[in-house]
Amino acid sequence: MNIKKYLDFRLLGLTGSILLIISQFLSWFSNQSLLCIYIITTSVAIEDSFLYLFPLISGIICLVGTGLIVYKIDYRINSVIINFVGLGFFLIFIFEIVTKEFIYLPTAQIGFYFSIIGSILIFFDILNVLIIKES
User: Fold this and answer.
1) Interval 47-95: pLDDT, tens
2) Phi, psi of 32 (to 5 degrees)
3) So where are the chain's domains?
4) DSSP labels for 36-63?
């Protein structure tokens, strides 16, 4: 049945989005969550501090994109575009912040891994949505 394929990729996107959102509140580097780092850096460098919210923003955007396809299967391409925008925010975060914290990468904790796994799941969700044929 077609419903089995629909459930498979819907759960893949939802899981990836939720992992990205949860990773914001788990410890990343030096036993601090990104939310704590955001609050600390807001007083020092306001322009860089907003970047620490990008995994949360990315997760919410991808959750909306995945929710759109759950709502109606005809919005597949819209969902893919929204998920690409969400992953774009996450890539900006990875290239800007994680490269600055590169020396701490060997001691990265669970939040970092949740975000990487979540973004990979969202990417595979995008591929799944594009591969599935309409009936």
Assistant:
1) 677 787 888 899 999 999 988 887 777 888 888 899 999 999 999 888 8
2) -125, 140
3) 24-131
4) HHHHHHHTT-HHHHGGGGHHHHHHHHHH
Q: Which two tokens stand for residue 39?
A: 């609050």
Specify the pairing of strand 27-29 against strand 32-33: antiparallel
Distance, in Å, from the CA atom of 86 to the CA atom of 1, rounded to the nearest integer, reads: 30
The token duo for 118 is 């979540």
Name the nearest CA neighbour of 84 among 103, 68, 101, 62.
62
- Give the SS3 label for residue 25: coil
Q: What is the pTM of this model?
A: 0.83
What are the distances in angstroms from CA 91 to CA 51, 69, 70, 100?
Answer: 11, 23, 25, 14
Query: What H or E segment, with its residue span, contains residue 124?
Result: helix 110-131
What pLDDT was estimated at residue 76? 84
- Segment (H or E) for 33: strand 32-33
